[in-house]
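Record type: monomer structure entry
Structure origin: computed from sequence
Chain ID: A
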Amino acid sequence: MRPVALRPGPASGAGVPALPDGVARAGRVGGPPVLVGRVAVGPVASAVVASGDLFSAAAEERLERQAPLAARMRPVRLDDVVGQDSLVGVGRPLRVLVESDRLSSAILWGPPGTGKTTLAQVIARHTAKAYEQLSAVSASVKDVREVLARAEQRLGERGQGTILFLDEVHRFNKAQQDALLPSVESGLVVLVGATTENPYFEVNAPLLSRSTLFRLEPLGADAVAELLRRGLSIEGASADDDALAHLAERAGGDGRQALTALEVAVALAGERSAGDGGDVRVSLADAEAALGTKLHRYGRDEHYDVISAFIKSIRGSDPQAALHWLARMLEAGEDARFVARRLVILASEDVGEADPLSLVVATSAAHAVEYVGLPEAQLNLAQAVVHLATAPKSNRAALGIWSAREDVRRGVGGEVPVHLRDAHYRSAHSLGHGVGYDYPHDDPRGWVRQQYLPDAARDAVYYQPSGHGYEQEIAERMQRLADGPDDTADQRDGERP
C-alpha cells in the first residue's frame, strides 16, 4: 500500500480521466477535490490504494492524449467556463453558491454541449464535500443505494457531506428518482442533476421542488468561437477566419459539437500539411468537410419548440417559415402522423369558416400520410401547409365553442325548451314535447324565427363571424336573417340556410 501523488491535468486545464470504480488517486493537502473512481475526496484528504489497482502513469498519459478534444479542454475554474455568464459570471447565483460551498440540490438543464458536466466537475473542485458521479443511462436503484450508503457512512465517520452528480437524470424512471428523494430531502446528499430534457416533464415533481433549477442556454457564436480558439491552441494549429466563423455558426450552440468538428478539421488540415511540410492551418474547405455529417439536435424541448414555431408560422400566414419548420421536423425524424394531426386541428382552430376547404385539405393530407407514407408524403404535407398558411384566417368557430363550454361550466343552461324536445315516442305529445316547433323546411324561405337556446342563455352570442374570406359572406347572411329575411333574399341565399 502506498500513496500516489496526483499529477496535474494537461495544458488545457482538463482533469485527469476518471478511473474505474474502486480505483483512487490521492489528493494534495490543500488542493482541489480529486476523483476517486466515481468519488472525489476533499482538499485535506488523501487516498491510499493498492498499487495493483492503479493504471500505470504511461497508460494515464496515453488516455489523456487519446481523449476527445472537448474532454481535454474541460475547464477546472469557473472563470474558464464559456458562454454561461448569467449563471457563473461575477456575482451570479450559481457562482456565489459554488464559491461559498453552499450549493444545495440543483438541476442543470440545457441542450447538449452547453457545459452541464463541466459545471458539475468544477463544483467538485470547489467543495469540501465528497463527489460521486453516476450516469442515469447505466445506473440502477442498487447503484443509487450504494452511493447513499457510502454518503451516510462518510457523514457518520468524518462529518463530510456528499455531492451526487447524476448525468442524464431524465433517464431515471419514477422508482429510481423516488429512491433519491428521502436523502435529498434530509440533506444526506446534495443532488446535482444534468438533463437535456425539460425537467418539468421528466423529473418527479417532489424531487424538482427540492432542487434549484439552473437553465443553461445554447452557446452564442462568440462563445463557440472562443472555445474553438482555445482548441486550436491545444492542438497546436491555426485556422482561417472564415473557417472559424463557419464552425462557430454551424455548431448550433453546442460547444462539444464544435470542438468535435474542429478536431476533425485539424486532422484534415494536418494530413494536407504533412505533404508540404507547412504549419497545420484549418481552411474553410476543412471546416465544411468536418461538418458534413452534423446531426440535427431535436430532443423533447425542440419537439415542442419547433412544432410551436410551425403552428405559429401557419397562423401568421408565412408559408416560407412554415415549410422551414416542417423540413426541420421531417429531417429530425418527427412522426409525420403527429404533424398531420396538428394540421387537422389548425385547419379548424385558426382557419375555420374563413376557408372551409382547409379542413378537407388537412384531413386529405393526414389520409395521404397513412396511405402513402414518407418520404413521398412530404409532398402532401407541404401542399397542406402551403394551403393553410396562405388561406384567410379566422378563429371565430374555435372561440365560439370555447365560450359556450365556459358558460356550461359556469352553470348557464337550464331545461331544453319544450318545443325542441324529442317527440317521437308515445305520449311525448301529451307532455307537450315538440308542441310549437316550426319545421323550417315547411316555410318557403327555409327559415323561421324561433328560440333554440335555453331560457338562461337565450341572449348568448357564441359565434361572431369575422370579415375574412368566406366568413364575410356568412356574416352578411347572418345579418340578413337577424334583420328578418324576405322571400327574395332567401331564394338568393338558399344554398346555406
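Annotation 1: The chain has five domains: 2-72, 78-215, 221-290, 300-390, 417-492.
Annotation 2: DSSP finds 21 helices and eleven strands in the chain.
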